[in-house]
Structure formats: structure tokens, C-alpha cells
């Protein structure tokens, strides 16, 4: 069973990115549990976790949200590669936070980035996922924590 | 009286966004960007060609990571000043980078102010 503190680490990693990089905090929607693979947005940053827990954590966001986020970061390149780069950086921040808080009990991979609406996200059959809506300005992304 | 020569800056990060962000945000008139690299191997080649005084260094990169790259750069020029800019926020990573020869550590994400304070500290 996932502990609340563990979930908090992943959530804070995500919201910290918006607060610091865009200078505008994100808010958290009501988390819910889901059986099976959740639907994703156009861009997804994934970290694989093994050790004390096994599974994946990913941040998935629509292009419109990432575009505004890039604008807030004073970026003027809105190409596909830059969008991928950005979700990778968010996943990187989540990964860094987890390494800091969990230490060596968790083995956390370098983030990978997926794009498109039907990417192959690794999912263990029977494992339920915590879905945490991440709301920022008028946009909504998802943090998905799917761990044993 | 001799004018102080500008210090040369090299930015190493596999993220285009982060490279541009550091380039745009650093506000030192006496710091001149000589190039950017996307991994450790490129960084060593660029370092040999441009001889920078100050380097910002990501850690998680393809081909050669930042920790290994720091060792190479310090071997080439022991007086180089290296600021690690990384999302790896754990203490053990920071200590390892410092032991290899880094002079400062800045966590990602960062504000412009945090970046400039960290570079100012490095250039002192």
C-alpha cells in the first residue's frame, strides 16, 4: 500500500516545478484510484521505479498547457522537441525529489518521454493507479502514480 | 590600467530549454558564453576548443554523465569553476559532485535570482 508521504513527495515534485519555473503555483484536484491504464495527454514524462516499490510514475500534459508554461518561462520555441524536453524536465524534477526523500530504498530511472495520445506505458496487470489532477491556470494535467 | 578580461562560460545540459534558460537568465556582463553542449562527450570537446573559466553542468545526460565529465574537465584545467545544475536533489549526489571537483550545486527548477546568486558565488 502506497503511503501518503510517498504520494506527497511525487506531488510536491510536480507542483514545485510550476511554482519555481513558471512563478505561478499549480493546484491539486481530488485524487482518485483507477484500474488499468489511464488515458494520457499529448506529452508524457515517465520514471520507472524498482526496489522497495515497483512500477511507474508519470506526468502527462496537454500541448496547450505546455505552450503556456513555456511562455511563462520566457521560451520562444514551441516545437514538438521543446514540448518533449519540457515534460522530461518535469519528470526529472519528480525523480530528483523522490531520490532525495526515499534514498536508496527506491531505484529511480532516468526519465523517458512519450508523445502521442496512445503511447505504450508500462503497466502491471491488476495494479491500481493513483491519479492526481494538476491544475494550472485554465489547464489540467495528470500525475499518475502506479506502484506496488 | 588593464581592464579585466571577461570570464568564459560553457553551459552543459541535455535539455535545450535549460541551456537557453541559463543563457538568457545569467546577468553578468563580464561572463561571455563560449558554447553549449548536450552531453559530457560534447562538453569535453568544446572545453578543449574554448577553454572556459566557468561551467554549468547538468548531471543526468546521455553518452557521458555530469559526474564523469567533471573529473575530465578538472583534469584538463584544475582552476575551472563548475556549478552543478541538476534535479538530483539528494545530498549524496551533491557530495559526489563536489568530491569530483564541482564548486557549487543548484537544484532544478531554479529562479533567475537563484541562478545568478549561485554564479556570483562561483565567480568570487
Estimate the global geometry of chain B from the Cα principal axes. globular
Radius of gyration of chain B from CA coordinates? 13 Å
Report, as a whole number of angstroms, the end-to-end distance of chain B. Answer: 21 Å
Query: What's the overall geometry of chain A?
Result: globular
What share of residues are in beta strands of chain B? 15-25%
The CATH class of chain A, by name, is Alpha Beta
Helix content of chain B: 40-55%
The ordered H/E elements of chain B are EHEHEHEHEH
What name is given to the CATH topology of chain A? Answer: Chemotaxis protein chec
Give a count of the beta strands of chain B, DSSP E runs of length 2 or more: 5
Main sheet specs of chain A:
8 strands, antiparallel
Beta-strand portion of chain A reads: 25-35%
Which residues of chain B form runs of ≥5 with pLDDT under 50? none
Domain module tally of chain B = 1
**So what's the oligomer here?**
heterodimer
Low-pLDDT stretches of chain A are: none
| The CATH homologous superfamily of chain A | CheC-like
| CATH architecture heading of chain A | 3-Layer(aba) Sandwich
Whole-number count of domains of chain A: 1
Compute the gyration radius of chain A: what is it?
A: 14 Å
Amino acid at each position: 500500500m502506497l503511503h501518503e508521504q510517498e504520494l506527497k513527495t511525487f506531488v510536491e515534485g510536480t507542483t514545485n516545478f510550476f511554482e519555481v519555473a513558471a512563478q505561478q503555483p499549480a493546484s491539486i484536484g481530488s485524487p482518485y484510484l483507477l484500474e488499468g491504464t489511464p488515458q494520457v495527454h499529448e506529452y508524457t514524462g515517465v520514471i520507472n521505479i524498482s526496489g522497495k516499490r515497483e512500477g511507474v510514475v508519470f506526468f502527462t500534459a496537454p500541448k496547450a498547457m505546455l505552450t503556456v508554461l513555456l511562455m511563462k518561462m520566457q521560451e520562444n520555441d514551441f516545437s514538438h522537441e521543446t514540448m518533449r524536453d519540457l515534460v522530461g524536465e518535469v519528470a526529472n524534477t519528480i525523480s530528483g525529489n523522490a531520490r532525495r526523500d526515499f534514498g536508496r530504498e527506491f531505484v529511480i530511472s532516468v526519465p523517458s518521454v512519450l508523445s502521442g495520445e496512445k503511447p505504450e506505458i508500462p503497466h502491471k496487470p491488476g495494479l491500481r493507479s493513483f491519479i492526481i489532477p494538476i491544475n494550472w491556470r485554465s489547464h489540467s494535467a495528470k500525475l499518475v502514480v502506479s506502484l506496488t | 590600467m588593464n581592464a579585466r578580461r571577461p570570464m568564459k562560460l560553457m553551459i552543459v545540459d541535455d535539455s535545450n530549454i535549460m541551456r537557453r534558460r541559463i543563457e538568457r537568465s545569467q546577468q553578468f556582463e563580464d561572463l561571455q558564453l563560449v558554447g553549449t553542449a548536450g552531453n559530457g562527450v560534447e562538453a569535453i570537446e568544446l572545453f578543449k576548443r574554448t577553454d572556459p573559466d566557468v561551467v554549468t553542468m547538468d548531471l543526468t545526460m546521455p553518452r557521458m554523465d555530469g559526474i564523469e565529465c567533471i573529473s575530465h574537465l578538472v583534469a584538463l584545467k584544475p582552476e575551472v569553476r563548475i556549478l552543478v545544475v541538476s534535479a538530483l536533489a539528494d545530498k549524496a549526489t551533491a557530495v559526489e559532485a563536489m568530491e569530483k571537483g564541482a564548486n557549487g550545486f543548484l537544484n532544478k527548477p531554479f529562479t533567475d535570482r537563484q541562478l545568478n546568486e549561485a554564479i556570483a558565488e562561483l565567480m568570487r
